[in-house]
Amino acid sequence: MSLESLTEEAKQAVLTYNLKKAVDVAQRAVSEGVDLVALIQNGLTKGMAEIGAAFDAKKLYLPHVVSAAGAMNAALNILTPELERRGGKVDEGLGKFVICSIEGDIHSIGKDIVAIMLKIAGFSVINLGRDVPLTTIVQSCKNEKPVAVGTSALMTSTMVNQKTLEEMLRKEGIRDKLLTNIGGAPVTQRWADDIGASVYSENASDAVAKMTAAVNKKR
Fold first, then answer.
1. Which helix (H) or strand (E) holds 35?
2. What is the CATH number of the domain that holds 76?
3. Residue 18: other Cβ atoms inside 10 A
4. What is the spatial distance between Cα 140 and Cα 98, in angstroms, rounded to a whole number?
5. For residues 31 and 35, what is the distance between their CA atoms, to the nearest angstrom?
6. Helices and strands, counts by H and E, the chain
7. 132-180 pLDDT, tens per residue?
Protein backbone atom coordinates (compact mmCIF):
# COMPACT_ATOMS: atom_id res chain seq x y z
CA MET A 1 0.00 0.00 0.00
CA SER A 2 1.24 3.50 -0.81
CA LEU A 3 2.45 5.99 1.77
CA GLU A 4 -0.38 8.32 0.75
CA SER A 5 -3.02 5.69 1.48
CA LEU A 6 -1.48 4.71 4.81
CA THR A 7 -1.18 8.37 5.79
CA GLU A 8 -4.86 8.99 5.12
CA GLU A 9 -5.80 5.87 7.09
CA ALA A 10 -3.67 7.06 10.01
CA LYS A 11 -5.37 10.44 9.96
CA GLN A 12 -8.83 8.87 9.88
CA ALA A 13 -7.94 6.55 12.75
CA VAL A 14 -7.23 9.59 14.92
CA LEU A 15 -10.30 11.50 13.72
CA THR A 16 -12.55 8.52 14.52
CA TYR A 17 -10.79 7.65 17.81
CA ASN A 18 -10.09 4.18 16.41
CA LEU A 19 -7.25 2.73 18.47
CA LYS A 20 -7.36 -0.68 16.76
CA LYS A 21 -7.14 0.94 13.33
CA ALA A 22 -4.26 3.16 14.42
CA VAL A 23 -2.30 0.12 15.60
CA ASP A 24 -3.04 -1.73 12.36
CA VAL A 25 -1.88 1.18 10.20
CA ALA A 26 1.31 1.59 12.24
CA GLN A 27 2.15 -2.11 11.97
CA ARG A 28 1.63 -2.11 8.21
CA ALA A 29 3.70 1.05 7.84
CA VAL A 30 6.59 -0.59 9.68
CA SER A 31 6.37 -3.85 7.74
CA GLU A 32 6.19 -2.04 4.40
CA GLY A 33 9.14 0.22 5.21
CA VAL A 34 7.45 3.52 4.36
CA ASP A 35 8.58 6.96 5.54
CA LEU A 36 7.41 6.92 9.15
CA VAL A 37 8.16 10.60 9.77
CA ALA A 38 5.89 11.55 6.86
CA LEU A 39 3.22 9.18 8.17
CA ILE A 40 3.36 10.79 11.60
CA GLN A 41 3.41 14.39 10.40
CA ASN A 42 0.95 14.14 7.51
CA GLY A 43 -1.34 11.54 9.03
CA LEU A 44 -1.39 11.30 12.81
CA THR A 45 -0.35 14.88 13.54
CA LYS A 46 -2.73 16.43 11.00
CA GLY A 47 -5.56 14.35 12.39
CA MET A 48 -4.74 15.51 15.89
CA ALA A 49 -4.48 19.11 14.69
CA GLU A 50 -8.04 18.90 13.34
CA ILE A 51 -9.20 17.47 16.66
CA GLY A 52 -7.46 20.31 18.49
CA ALA A 53 -9.02 22.93 16.24
CA ALA A 54 -12.47 21.45 16.79
CA PHE A 55 -11.84 21.43 20.54
CA ASP A 56 -10.75 25.07 20.52
CA ALA A 57 -13.91 25.92 18.55
CA LYS A 58 -15.96 24.06 21.19
CA LYS A 59 -17.19 21.56 18.59
CA LEU A 60 -15.58 18.73 20.52
CA TYR A 61 -14.93 18.16 24.22
CA LEU A 62 -12.03 16.91 26.31
CA PRO A 63 -13.07 13.22 26.17
CA HIS A 64 -12.88 13.42 22.37
CA VAL A 65 -9.36 14.88 22.55
CA VAL A 66 -8.29 12.19 25.02
CA SER A 67 -9.70 9.44 22.80
CA ALA A 68 -8.00 10.82 19.71
CA ALA A 69 -4.72 11.14 21.59
CA GLY A 70 -5.11 7.54 22.74
CA ALA A 71 -5.34 6.36 19.14
CA MET A 72 -2.33 8.43 18.15
CA ASN A 73 -0.25 7.22 21.09
CA ALA A 74 -1.11 3.61 20.28
CA ALA A 75 0.36 4.13 16.82
CA LEU A 76 3.39 5.99 18.18
CA ASN A 77 4.14 3.14 20.58
CA ILE A 78 4.78 1.02 17.51
CA LEU A 79 6.39 3.66 15.30
CA THR A 80 8.82 5.16 17.85
CA PRO A 81 10.95 2.04 18.43
CA GLU A 82 11.16 1.51 14.68
CA LEU A 83 12.22 5.12 14.13
CA GLU A 84 14.96 4.70 16.71
CA ARG A 85 16.03 1.39 15.14
CA ARG A 86 16.26 3.00 11.71
CA GLY A 87 18.26 5.82 13.19
CA GLY A 88 20.77 3.31 14.50
CA LYS A 89 22.53 3.79 17.81
CA VAL A 90 21.41 7.08 19.29
CA ASP A 91 24.34 9.43 19.76
CA GLU A 92 23.53 12.17 22.26
CA GLY A 93 26.61 14.19 21.41
CA LEU A 94 24.70 17.32 20.43
CA GLY A 95 23.95 18.08 24.08
CA LYS A 96 20.94 18.35 26.34
CA PHE A 97 17.65 19.69 25.00
CA VAL A 98 14.89 20.65 27.46
CA ILE A 99 11.45 20.49 25.85
CA CYS A 100 7.87 20.94 27.02
CA SER A 101 4.44 22.34 26.31
CA ILE A 102 4.35 25.82 27.81
CA GLU A 103 2.45 26.69 30.97
CA GLY A 104 -1.31 26.68 30.38
CA ASP A 105 -1.10 24.37 27.37
CA ILE A 106 -2.28 20.77 27.79
CA HIS A 107 -1.40 19.68 24.24
CA SER A 108 1.55 17.31 24.07
CA ILE A 109 1.39 15.11 20.98
CA GLY A 110 3.30 17.39 18.60
CA LYS A 111 5.88 18.18 21.26
CA ASP A 112 6.41 14.49 21.94
CA ILE A 113 7.04 13.81 18.26
CA VAL A 114 9.63 16.59 18.18
CA ALA A 115 11.25 15.10 21.29
CA ILE A 116 11.51 11.70 19.62
CA MET A 117 13.05 13.13 16.47
CA LEU A 118 15.53 15.26 18.41
CA LYS A 119 16.67 12.19 20.33
CA ILE A 120 17.21 10.27 17.11
CA ALA A 121 19.16 13.24 15.73
CA GLY A 122 21.60 13.10 18.63
CA PHE A 123 20.25 15.28 21.45
CA SER A 124 19.88 14.13 25.04
CA VAL A 125 16.22 15.11 25.43
CA ILE A 126 14.69 16.12 28.75
CA ASN A 127 10.93 16.06 28.18
CA LEU A 128 9.25 17.97 31.01
CA GLY A 129 5.74 17.19 29.79
CA ARG A 130 2.79 19.51 29.26
CA ASP A 131 1.41 22.59 31.04
CA VAL A 132 4.83 23.12 32.63
CA PRO A 133 5.17 26.19 34.90
CA LEU A 134 7.63 28.76 33.63
CA THR A 135 9.54 28.61 36.90
CA THR A 136 10.01 24.86 36.41
CA ILE A 137 11.37 25.39 32.90
CA VAL A 138 13.82 28.02 34.11
CA GLN A 139 14.95 25.85 37.01
CA SER A 140 15.49 22.90 34.68
CA CYS A 141 17.63 25.08 32.44
CA LYS A 142 19.70 26.17 35.45
CA ASN A 143 20.11 22.61 36.73
CA GLU A 144 20.65 20.76 33.46
CA LYS A 145 22.61 23.45 31.60
CA PRO A 146 21.18 22.41 28.21
CA VAL A 147 22.30 23.69 24.83
CA ALA A 148 18.66 24.48 24.06
CA VAL A 149 15.16 24.74 25.46
CA GLY A 150 12.08 24.27 23.30
CA THR A 151 8.49 25.17 24.09
CA SER A 152 5.26 24.39 22.28
CA ALA A 153 2.14 26.57 22.39
CA LEU A 154 -0.98 25.31 20.64
CA MET A 155 -3.21 28.21 21.63
CA THR A 156 -2.86 31.95 21.13
CA SER A 157 -3.67 32.42 24.81
CA THR A 158 -0.53 30.50 25.86
CA MET A 159 1.85 32.00 23.29
CA VAL A 160 2.49 34.96 25.59
CA ASN A 161 4.20 32.60 28.02
CA GLN A 162 6.91 31.97 25.43
CA LYS A 163 7.68 35.67 25.57
CA THR A 164 7.64 35.66 29.36
CA LEU A 165 10.04 32.71 29.38
CA GLU A 166 12.51 34.65 27.24
CA GLU A 167 12.34 37.49 29.75
CA MET A 168 12.79 35.16 32.74
CA LEU A 169 15.81 33.46 31.17
CA ARG A 170 17.39 36.89 30.61
CA LYS A 171 16.64 37.95 34.18
CA GLU A 172 18.35 34.79 35.48
CA GLY A 173 21.38 35.55 33.31
CA ILE A 174 21.24 32.30 31.35
CA ARG A 175 19.49 33.31 28.11
CA ASP A 176 22.77 33.86 26.24
CA LYS A 177 24.03 30.45 27.34
CA LEU A 178 21.39 28.48 25.42
CA LEU A 179 19.27 28.48 22.30
CA THR A 180 15.49 28.83 22.50
CA ASN A 181 13.18 27.03 20.12
CA ILE A 182 9.46 27.77 19.80
CA GLY A 183 6.70 26.01 17.90
CA GLY A 184 3.00 25.25 17.83
CA ALA A 185 0.09 25.82 15.47
CA PRO A 186 -0.36 29.60 16.04
CA VAL A 187 3.37 30.31 16.35
CA THR A 188 5.17 32.03 13.45
CA GLN A 189 8.60 33.26 12.49
CA ARG A 190 7.40 36.80 13.12
CA TRP A 191 6.46 35.87 16.69
CA ALA A 192 9.89 34.33 17.19
CA ASP A 193 11.52 37.52 15.92
CA ASP A 194 9.29 39.69 18.12
CA ILE A 195 10.12 37.87 21.35
CA GLY A 196 13.77 37.18 20.56
CA ALA A 197 13.60 33.39 20.27
CA SER A 198 16.57 31.74 18.60
CA VAL A 199 14.65 29.39 16.31
CA TYR A 200 11.08 28.91 15.07
CA SER A 201 10.18 25.37 14.01
CA GLU A 202 7.18 24.54 11.88
CA ASN A 203 7.24 20.79 12.52
CA ALA A 204 9.44 17.97 13.84
CA SER A 205 11.66 17.70 10.77
CA ASP A 206 12.10 21.46 10.69
CA ALA A 207 13.03 21.47 14.39
CA VAL A 208 15.70 18.80 13.92
CA ALA A 209 17.24 20.50 10.88
CA LYS A 210 17.28 23.99 12.36
CA MET A 211 18.37 23.03 15.86
CA THR A 212 21.15 20.72 14.67
CA ALA A 213 22.47 23.51 12.47
CA ALA A 214 22.13 26.11 15.21
CA VAL A 215 23.97 24.00 17.79
CA ASN A 216 26.78 23.14 15.41
CA LYS A 217 27.12 26.81 14.45
CA LYS A 218 27.33 27.87 18.10
CA ARG A 219 30.13 25.42 18.92
1. none
2. 1.10.1240.10
3. 19
4. 8
5. 11
6. 10, 5
7. 999 999 999 999 999 999 999 988 889 999 999 999 999 999 999 999 9
